[in-house]
Amino acid sequence: MAAPDLRNTQETTVHRIDAIESAAIVRISRLGTGLNVSRFFRGISWLGDGWFWYGLIVLLPLLSGHQGAVVSLHVGLTALINVALYKYLKERLVRPRPFILRSEIVAGAPILDQYSFPSGHTLHAVCFTTMLFPYFPETIWVLLPFTVLVAFSRMILGLHYPTDVLAGGLIGFAMARVSLFAFGNCTLTGC
After folding, report:
1. Residue 157 gets which letter from DSSP?
2. What is the DSSP letter of 107?
């Protein structure tokens, strides 16, 4: 009896996941076909390009003095590491964006780079939110909904698959926790 070909099994599993995800992103992107919905999520995505986070980095020292400046520096340095990490991953994993492979999906916003996996917007949103919470817990009421909207915007606009967004969120969370731990603000088990 021949041993099962593990590589073929893995490829079959990946193809099944891709087919399910591809069908799902077609349905999800249809949510953004209404003019008001499209404009709303395009605006959220544009803010998630970095404008929201840059504004926050500038605003924190103005609102919270020295502590805000330290937090801004910490978050900014982590963001730079995240940019290098997600660009490295995108260039190695080269997953085409949904609208490139599926003609029924229209890109709802300009893209910042060519590849889809992982979602850099989601990575940064989750990382910033996770890092800012221990310092400024009262901001969770603004940051958490914004982060969720950024993640959904990437799929609704046809720019990312659900696994791109999930991976971006997981990487962002992990990077935030490691950065907080390294900076001495948290233990790995809690803040």
Report:
1. T
2. -
CB under 8 A, 24+ apart: contacts of 47-56: 47/146, 47/150, 48/121, 48/124, 48/125, 48/150, 48/153, 48/154, 49/112, 49/121, 50/124, 52/146, 53/79, 53/124, 53/128, 56/128, 56/132
Cα torsion 99, 105, 106, 108: sign: negative
Report the candidate in 176, 160, 183, 159 with the shortest Cα–Cα distance to residue 53: 176
**pLDDT tens column, 94-138:** 888 888 877 787 777 878 888 888 999 999 999 999 999 988 899
- Could you tell me the two tokens for 121? 């917007």
What's the token pair of residue 125? Answer: 């949103």
DSSP H or E run through 109: none
pLDDT at 70 over 80: yes
Higher pLDDT: 191 or 19? It is 19
- The mean pLDDT value for 23-30 works out to 80
Query: Rounded distance, CA 76 to CA 156, Å?
Result: 28
